[in-house]
Amino acid sequence: MSSELICFNPACRSRYAITDVLYNCPRCGGLLEADFDRAGIDAAALKSLWRSRRTLNSKLDQSGVWRYRELIPFLDDTSCVVSLREGNTPLLDGPRAASYAGVDRIVFKHQGFNPTGSFKDNGMTCGASQAVRLGMRRVACVSTGNTSASMAAYASAAGLQPIIFIPHGNISYGKLAQALEYGARTFQVEANFDQILALVRVLAERLGIYLLNSINPFRIEGQKSIIFEMMDQRDWNPPDWIVLPGGNLGNTSAFGKALRELHSLGFINRMPRLAVIQASGASPFFELWQAADHTRLSAVGHPETLATAIKIGDPVSWPKALHEVERTRGTVEKVTEQEIADAKAQIGRCGIGCEPASAATLAGVCKLRAAGVIAPDADIVAVLTGNVLKDPDYIYRYHTKQLDAPDGTRLNSTFANQPVVVANDPDRIATLLED
Ligand code: F0G
Question: Which residue of 324, 379, 419, 429 has the lowest C-beta tally within 10 Å?
Fold first, then answer.
């Protein structure tokens, strides 16, 4: 075999052809993942090959996903690859954020530098390429905004029709605007993310539309590259902690799979620990983690958070994510709206910036440091999942002291930076600047 689909359920492990259009195991209903033949993989040789590709100009080598194609080998013919030169996202030092959290150092891997401004592009290049390979004409997803922006771009770039479903009134305008501009047929449904996912699965089946939510195993394959690139940038020295926000839990699943593969193939000599951070109003995975036995996730019926990207109550990938957090001896934490808002302003003051869901990482580091889980001298990489311009409305409200939590309470704009309205008067402005 080269690549196959395999059921993630340890009691099943059924195998299917890589070209079967499946999102769950037909035998047991479990999640599926792509598996590949590891014979002949030489870590040292690949490390230097991947490094050398950074200087090349071909589409595959310029992509921060396909550069690592030997560990994402599900295509037998790369002519169907759809790439917008995704990945290639930087590691950025955030000294101010580190002192805010009470740690010596924190480094951000900023996925907001992607072509559509979020980490979704790392996975979407793979999902869209598989759609092309399968001869699909239409692709669909439900989204809190970033998946739909990314899918719209990649589908249009590939000449496929993107069809997106979003919870009406619950995604930021920046993200909705992207989907419209990239030409997606857009349905604003009066239901929440979890309800719409069920709807889209029915429609995809009935109309033969290819589903590109993170239940699609090829999206997860692509998102592994965030870890591959992070380790490459760190000369294969794993950090102590990798901190990320958790919503539908596809990214947690991808990070864990990538780490397992890198470790078992000898690319890294130890496993970093994954810390998954949820918003307290949408934290079913945190509740599962707290439960005495980690057997079944109880969905949150009405998830609430201003971090709309992670406003999800029934995350589909929880069995994978749970396995990965356990495998890395990681942890799951939840943070309040106030903690997210203030952490976000601190990331902004580093000159870095991110969208609200991404700031859950720094808020989580603060909390885990205070609880003694993360040591002050720990080597920490926090993954900022989306660009600062994804949700300007949130930013404006925070800095003008008008940001209300979902329950209507006004949040403190602790680090507000209010714009000043002023007359066209140099004397007046000079006086203000002297204060
Ligand atoms: N951060 C951002 C900016 C996101 O857009 C998402 C998910 C997450 C974190 C959580 O990642 O679902 O893999 O745990 N956004 C999805 C979407 C759900 O539709 O754009 P996850």
Answer: 419
